[in-house]
Amino acid sequence: MRRIIGLVLMGLAGFLITTALLALIYIPGAVKKTPLDTDSYTRLTGNAAALPTGDGSAVKALSRTVADGQKSDGDVVVFDTFSCLIKDPNGDSPDCVDDTDPDRRLVTATTDRFATDRKTGLAVNDEKYIGDAQPHDGLVNKFPFDVEKKTYPFWDGILDRAVDAAFEGEEKVNGWDTYKFVIDVSDEPAEISTGIQGTYSDLKTMFVDPRTGSILKQTEQQKRVLDNGTTVLDLDFGFTDETVKANIDAAKDNDSRLGLIGNLPLIAGLLGLLALAAGFFLWNGARRTGGDDDRLADDTRGPDGDGHANDDTRNLDVFGDDEATRSRSEIHGR
Predict the structure, then answer these.
(1) Parallel, antiparallel, or unpaired: how do β-strands 76-87 and 106-117 relate?
(2) Is 190 a residue whose pLDDT tops 50?
(3) How far is CA 225 from the centre of its chain?
């Protein structure tokens, strides 16, 4: 029985060690990918002054990002995004309005299509993914998994190129550890609205989950100015508290899952080694004990293999030698 248990434990050890190797080599690469079922809403609030009146107003913005599962594959994910920025003076405006809105609340509304590498987050411009959509450069909507403390290129849709997102330290957001990245663009020549040239400035601060690369919180101060010095848009807004909380809750869930995967090689490896040691001890002990029992059994068998000892009890001289036995027989016979 001990031999069987030992063999079972050694088989389990092989399974656990194989699992540890897979968890170390293969599983992280398979799991640390942008999901293909993304359908997220990001809401922002703030204040803005904009033409034609130039008056300031409370504003709200909605950005929806949806993955195109049919165009995406194991390496690349394709996204469609819709963003809408509107005035919200009374706090009761809908998520978006069109340009026929009688209250003229629409500030900007844009759509975008892009593809990114599911591991690195960098833009992919192959036509089989984006068709005739505008090519992008750098990171677009998230940072890579296992974010590094360095400067990353990040896409700016007004400048139509990537700009530097500089690492500026670690900071807690709602008690959660994040990496802080800052984009600082100042008075760059740009097309600030369709067919209209001017200068563009943007100070964007992003608080990023180090493990997943998700942007958990973002604030932005953006300014668009005509060449004659007239301000077209002066915007100061950021993620709502509800959006930040939802992002951090999602980061905690993802962190737990990824943390378990990260610890799996160590846990499975230790259990595998323990099972291997215990299994070998039982198997080897049973083998050695079994060998001694076999030898003892061989020693009790007679030459004819009938299980009797070498001295045949049927011919046993209980009195000693044969001569003494015959003397006693003669005595009793008289």
Answers:
(1) antiparallel
(2) yes
(3) 42
